[in-house]
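Final report, Chapter 2: Outcomes

The project's central promise was a pipeline that accepts a single protein chain and returns its three-dimensional structure in a standardized token representation, suitable for archiving and comparison. That pipeline is now operational. To close this chapter, we reproduce one record exactly as it appears in the project archive, with the input sequence first and the structure output second.
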Amino acid sequence: MDPESAPQSPSAANARPDHDAVAAAIERRLQAEREKAAAAAQSSMFDGKHEKRQEFRRMIDPGILRPNPRPLALEALQVQLLFNSLQLGDHPGEVKYQKFKPTNASIKRLLVDPRGTLEYAVALGFHPQVENFQPYYVFNQRYMEDLKIGAAMIKEALERELVKEEREQRRRAEEKAAHEAAVAKVKQAFYDDRKGRAMVDERERTVRAAAAANPNRSSASPAPSTIADYRPKRRMPGSGQTLSGEVIDVDADDDEGHEDADAALHSEDDG
């Protein structure tokens, strides 16, 4: 009996996976994950911080990224705003992280002069004060939650923009390499052409110099050196008929002509 045609036991039949059941289980798991993600998004929108996050996002783009040179905007976000926010969030009790002096050269270049950067610092909770007749921006502890949200939005923007910047730098590097390769190819072709022309000019100069050194040899026709050179050129072999009906054998005529020419040359040599 064929083993494949033999009836299977109930235990073997139950062991076979039900593809419909597996597909249904996968679909249920995917649906649960989708519902979980949607619930998380819905919760984030109604947690009381969604509007604040959106406000900080708008202050970064278009507020800071668009009106400023891109390298300056990224440096301001990465070096100054993010540094101050994270350090202050990690060390809320340290006074040195709770204020900055707007007249400092680095602070002025990265935090005061660019458009939108000082406004962002104010939104984080830094407000202007005068201490010992010196201007400062001092952080108010009541805005700690805003500071954390603002710092998170800076991190989010930097992760996105730095990836774009890296991609753009790679594209510019590839374009530069392609341009340099094309320029090198054109230069090599130019050098090869000049080298070829120089070789041709050198050969022509050599020929002219040889002709100038022996003008008689260049103008005279070369003299024959062997008996074969005196022999007239043979015509095409074969036979034919003239208009008068006379039959001409070219091979016979040529052989007789060559024999006569050879005899004449030998007689001259004997004489």
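Archive annotation: Residues 144-213 form the longest helix (70 residues).
This record, like all others produced under the grant, will remain available to the consortium after the project formally closes.
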